DNA sequence: CTGGGGAGGGGGCCC
DNA sequence: TGGGCCCCCTCCCCA
């Protein structure tokens, strides 16, 4: 699988990405069909819904609700060091290619014989080991296993197994794609394009069975169900079929499938 | 109440 | 790794 977007279920993470990199600049999408039209100047924040806009204003890079980041996010745990840069910025105020945790690991790595007893300490649980290999084994078996592939969203409690998944999710908070017509913001460009069709009235998805056309492919697909004698969603009890899952749910909630 | 349209969200796949 | 696209799903509203 090229990319994994699996959401990690449990909440146990110390990893925080560099959000300054994740929060891309706002994209104002102007379709070519609007060229030449006197587009209004969009008053952005006040016309957006509070739910859609508040994350942008509430959280800033300097006010990230970061969890206490241990200093143990060493390269041996398998994570890009940049992911923890945000935390190190908070107190160091400067950036360097080598992160704080790297610096902390260096003396230990250059001392493979463990001259001093209990010199190798786990930054996550504070357990100490006399040899580096002992610490490494501990990390692989315990602490790293708890934090492996855990990228947490700073806006909500969701966690993802990959940075790419987290980046995409964060767009649902930052809503970088803004409609120039009405100012509404969206997480992805194609969502914005679909929204723009509501302004233009463009309906590129036509039903082959009737004259209806739709701006959204999903809505056409739902519509096509209405032409089918056997709908996609079937009640397990009475075998009645429905064109939509929601209709099936309503049917089940109405009492058809009460007796199991 | 049911069925259907409109609009939008989110994860997964492909390039 | 990122963007585009697809699919599935949900919510709201209306006839």
Automatic annotation (TrEMBL):
GO terms for cellular component: nucleus. It is found in: Nucleus. Gene3D superfamilies: Classic Zinc Finger. Residues 120-147, 151-174, 177-204, 205-232, 233-260 form the C2H2-type domain. Residues 87-99 have a biased composition (Basic and acidic residues). Its main location: nucleus. Keywords: Developmental protein, DNA-binding, Metal-binding, Nucleus, Repeat, Repressor, Transcription, Transcription regulation, Zinc, Zinc-finger. The keyword Repeat applies. Residues 79-107 are annotated as: Disordered. InterPro entries: Snail/Krueppel_Znf, Znf_C2H2_sf, Znf_C2H2_type. One of its GO terms (molecular function) is zinc ion binding. Belongs to the snail C2H2-type zinc-finger protein family. This is Zinc finger protein SNAI2. It comes from Pleuronectes platessa (European plaice). The lineage of its organism: Eukaryota, Metazoa, Chordata, Craniata, Vertebrata.
């Amino acid at each position: 699988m090229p990319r994994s977007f699996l959401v990690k279920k449990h909440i146990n993470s110390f990893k925080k990405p560099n959000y300054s990199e994740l929060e891309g600049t706002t994209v104002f999408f102007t379709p070519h069909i609007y060229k030449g039209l006197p587009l209004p100047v969009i008053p952005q924040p006040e016309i957006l819904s509070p739910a859609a806009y508040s994350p942008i204003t509430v959280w800033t890079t300097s006010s990230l609700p970061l969890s206490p980041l241990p200093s143990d996010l060493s390269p041996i745990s398998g994570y890009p060091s940049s992911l923890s840069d945000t935390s190190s910025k908070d107190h160091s105020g400067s950036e360097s290619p080598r992160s704080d945790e790297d610096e902390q690991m260096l003396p230990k790595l250059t001392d493979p014989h463990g001259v001093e007893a209990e010199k190798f300490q786990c930054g996550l649980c504070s357990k100490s080991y006399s040899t580096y290999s002992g610490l490494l084994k501990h990390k692989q078996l315990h602490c790293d296993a708890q934090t492996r592939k855990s990228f947490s969203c700073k806006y909500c409690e969701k966690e993802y197994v990959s940075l790419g998944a987290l980046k995409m999710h964060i767009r649902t908070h930052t809503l970088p794609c803004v409609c120039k017509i009405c100012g509404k913001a969206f997480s992805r460009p194609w969502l914005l394009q679909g929204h723009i069709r509501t302004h233009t009235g463009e309906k590129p998805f036509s039903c082959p069975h009737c004259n209806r056309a739709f701006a959204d492919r999903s809505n056409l697909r739902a519509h096509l169900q209405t032409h089918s004698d056997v709908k996609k969603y079937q009640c397990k009890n009475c075998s009645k079929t429905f064109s939509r899952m929601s209709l099936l749910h309503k049917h089940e909630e109405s009492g058809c499938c009460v007796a199991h």
